Amino acid sequence: MATKKSGTSSTPATHAHDAHDDHGHEAHSHAACGHNHGPQHIYIYSPSSAVLDKSAFRRGVARLKAMGHEVEIDQDALARSTRFAGDDDTRLAAIHRAAASGADVAMISRGGYGLSRILPGIKYKSVAKAVEKGTRFIGQSDFTAFQNALLAKTGAMSWSGPSLVADLGVEGEPDDIMLACLDDLFTGHGEGSGWRMHHEKPNADGSDAVRDVYFKNATLWGGNMAMLCSLLDTPFFPEVKGGVLFLEDVAEHPYRVERMFTQLLHAGVLKQQKAIILGQFTGYQLAPHDKGYRMQSVIDWLRTQIKAPVLTNLPFGHVATKVLLPVGGNVSLSVEGRDALIYWGHAH
C-alpha cells in the first residue's frame, strides 16, 4: 500500500493531505472509475443553528459557483426561529428535501446546535436511499449527531468535512488542503488522509508513545466528542466493534475532555475499538489551578486505560485545515513512526 502524502509540516496547523498522485501513478484506476468528474450539484440546507453571517453564506455559495458547480439553496436555508434555522418541523423538512434533491452533495450551511432535538423525526431510510443513489451528506460539529444516528439506524455512510459558512465562506482564500480534499470527494479521487502526529516523549520503558500498527477492514466513525457522548444509551448511538474512533472538540477544557473519555470508557465503547484518533482540540484556556495538567495529561491517562493505540494531531476539527473523513466507511490504518494514514480507497 502506497502512502501518498504531500505538504507535510511539523506545525500543528499544517497537515499532510493524501491527494491523488500528481504524477499519474493512479491514473489507471481513475480513468474508468465511473464517477462524475464534472460540475457537481450541491444542495445547501440548514438543519441546526440559524445563519447569522449572511455575507459568509453568500461568499460560500459564490465560491462553489466559481468552481463551476451548480448550487441549489434550500428554501429555508436562511430561516430563523430563536437560535435555530427555523422550528423543528422546518429543519426536518429541509433534511428530507436535501435527501430528495438528487444532489451529488448535500452540505450543511453551519453547525451549532439543533439536530439533537429532531433525531427521532428524521426519515433515515429516505436519507440512506439518497446515499445509495449517490448523494454525499457532508458537515461537522452538530452534524455529528445526524451522521452517527444515520450510521446507527441504517449503516449508511456520510462525510465529516467542511460546512458552507465557516469553511467556504471565509474572507480571503479558504484553506488549500480543505479545498483539495473537497475536490477529491467531488471527482472521486479521494483515497485517504495521511498526517504527522505530535512529537511525544517515549514511554517509561523506552518504547514509542504510539507503536507502529497496520490493520484493515475497520469502520471509521466519530466526530465532535460532546455530540457523540450526548448520543450514548440512545437509539442513535452506533454499536461499532473493532472500529477506528476519531474525535475532536472546541472550547472544551482538557478535564472536560477527560470526563467525556471516562464516559465512553465506562460505557464500554473504547475497549471495543481498534484505535482512537484525536483531531484538533481548540479554543480552551488552561487555568492556574491545572498546575501542569493539560491535554497531553489526558492522552497519557487514556493510554493507561485502554490497549488500543491513541493517535494524535489528525487534521480535523474546528480549524481551517481539515480533511474529509467517511463516517461509516471501511478503512485501513497504518502507523509508522509519527506518520499515520487512514486509507479507504473508493469508499463512496
Oligomeric state as shown = single chain
The beta-strand count equals: 13
Q: End-to-end span in angstroms?
A: 19 Å
Give the SSE order as H and E letters.
Answer: HEHEHEHHEHEHHEEHEHEHEEEE
- Widest beta sheet: strand line-up: 6-13-12-7-8-9-10
Number of helices: 11
On the 0 to 100 scale, the average pLDDT is 90
- Beta percentage is 15-25%
Which structural class do you get from the secondary structure elements?
alpha/beta
Shape, per Cα inertia axes: globular
Roughly what percent helix? 25-40%
Low-confidence parts lasting 5 or more residues at pLDDT below 50?
1-34
Main pleated-sheet profile: 7 strands, mixed
Gyration radius over CA:
19 Å
Characterization of this structure:
The protein has eleven helices and 13 strands. The chain has helices at 27-31, 54-66, 88-100, 115-118, 124-132, 143-154, 164-168, 176-187, 225-230, 254-266, 295-305, and strands at 41-45, 70-73, 105-108, 136-139, 158-160, 192-196, 213-224, 243-250, 273-282, 310-311, 325-327, 330-336, 339-343. The strands form two sheets. Strands 6-13-12-7-8-9-10 form a seven-stranded mixed β-sheet. It has a six-stranded mixed β-sheet with strand order 2-1-3-4-5-11, sandwiched between helices. Strand 8 (243-250), helix 10 (254-266) and strand 9 (273-282) form a beta-alpha-beta unit. The longest helix has 13 residues, at 54-66. The radius of gyration is 19 Å and the shape is globular.
Give a short synopsis of this structure.
The chain has 348 residues and is α/β, with parallel strands linked by helices.
Secondary structure layout plus pairing:
Blueprint: H1 27-31, E1 41-45, H2 54-66, E2 70-73, H3 88-100, E3 105-108, H4 115-118, H5 124-132, E4 136-139, H6 143-154, E5 158-160, H7 164-168, H8 176-187, E6 192-196, E7 213-224, H9 225-230, E8 243-250, H10 254-266, E9 273-282, H11 295-305, E10 310-311, E11 325-327, E12 330-336, E13 339-343
Parallel strand pairs: 1-2, 1-3, 3-4, 4-5, 7-8, 8-9, 9-10
Antiparallel strand pairs: 5-11, 6-13, 7-12, 12-13
Helix pairs in contact: 3-5, 5-6, 10-11
